[in-house]
Design goal:
Residues 72-165 form the Methyltransferase type domain. It comes from Otolemur garnettii. This is Methyltransferase like 27. By secondary structure, this protein is an alpha/beta fold. It has one domain: Rossmann fold, CATH 3.40.50.150. Helices cover 36% and strands 24% of the residues. It contains 7 helices and 7 strands, in the order αααβαβαββαβαββ. It has helices at residues 9-20, 25-45, 50-61, 80-87, 100-109, 151-156, 175-190; strands spanning 70-74, 92-97, 114-117, 132-137, 158-169, 194-207, 223-233. It has a 7-stranded mixed sheet with strand order 3-2-1-4-5-7-6, with helices on both faces. α1 packs antiparallel against α2, α2 runs parallel beside α5 and α3 (50-61) packs parallel to α4 (80-87). The longest helix has 21 residues, at 25-45.
Length: 237
Amino acid sequence: MAQEEGVSLAEVRARVGASHGITDLAPKLHFYDSWAPDYDQDVATLQYRAPRLAVDCLSQAFPGLPHDALILDVACGTGLVAAELQARGFSQLHGVDGSPGMLEQARARSLYQHLSLCTLGQELLPSPEGTFDAVLMVGALSDGQVPCTAIPELLRVTKPGGLVCLTTRTNPSNLRYKEALEATLDGLEQARVWQRLVAWPVDRWELATSELEVGPNTLTEGFISGIVYLYRKVEVT
């Protein structure tokens, strides 16, 4: 059932906070299926900025014409990233997600040329090696969603010289995951398979869902922090 008018910030915080507390994949996907009709309204209430920030970062570094680029949106959800991409001239969009409910909402947006059901971390992405000019994964890097071990799969489907854009939260409840993620990202850079272009910390990521999510050094009251990473896949010579 779609969200009714007048749902309070407290109710949205409780619902989104519940999603953060689910750390097993199967119940997490079930939660997303049921949340899909309300997702856009809920994250708007929380002033969730990751899709716009990630696409801003990608578009500023993109070397070619956006309408010529083939883009993969991993863990695409309802298509918020696709809406931002289209607004900046990217039109050849593919999406994958592990939640049928989320894909149903994304399909209704009519922004993707192709959508696939895929649980990254358990399945390979349904694309050949070196397919995409850019790959994005926004909002899915945390416990119970996409494991750090799946990051090389994003690289596999990216063209040599292509871009990979990732985001994660940097508030206290996600720091353990962020540390593991950065170890994976740094390991791939040390292996010289990609090069970091950007690591952009953002204070006003989204409104916190509880006091436990806000660290003692939070600069912007009520908001948690996040980070946008941008990498370029190394071209084989």
